Amino acid sequence: MTVRLVRDPIDLAALQAVTPADGALCLFVGVVRDDNGGRRVLRLEYEAYEEMALPLMEKIAAEARERWRITELRIVHRLGRLEVGEASVAVAVASPHRREAFEACRYAIDTLKASVPIWKKEFYADGEVWLDKPGESPITLS
Fold first, then answer.
1. What predicted TM-score, i.e. pTM, was given to this entire model?
2. What domains, with CATH codes, occur in the chain?
């Protein structure tokens, strides 16, 4: 299992490890889009409470391994400044069968987004907004 927080572009090819027993590789990649709620997004910045985020990401990977028959699970989340079109997060799951790979991959990304302290700031032409702050509504800065 590999979990990482990185400040450089995510190497998607490096995530795609399979064994001879694997019949499936499920790869989810979250990408910076140019629109959110009708506002044109110029770029994003991600921050994390790294000392807490990495152990929680490890826990998600371990839980997925307990729930599904998978051979590998890798999670990488990017921090810092990202431009539209760049990968912000990637989850790769290898398994002998596709059902387990899909289910474990979905579990990992959904659980990461709901519970890991990683925050996103969106930049627009007319301001910026922190999103995903636990227990808070979006904070608008202008």
1. 0.89
2. 2-141 (3.90.1170.40)
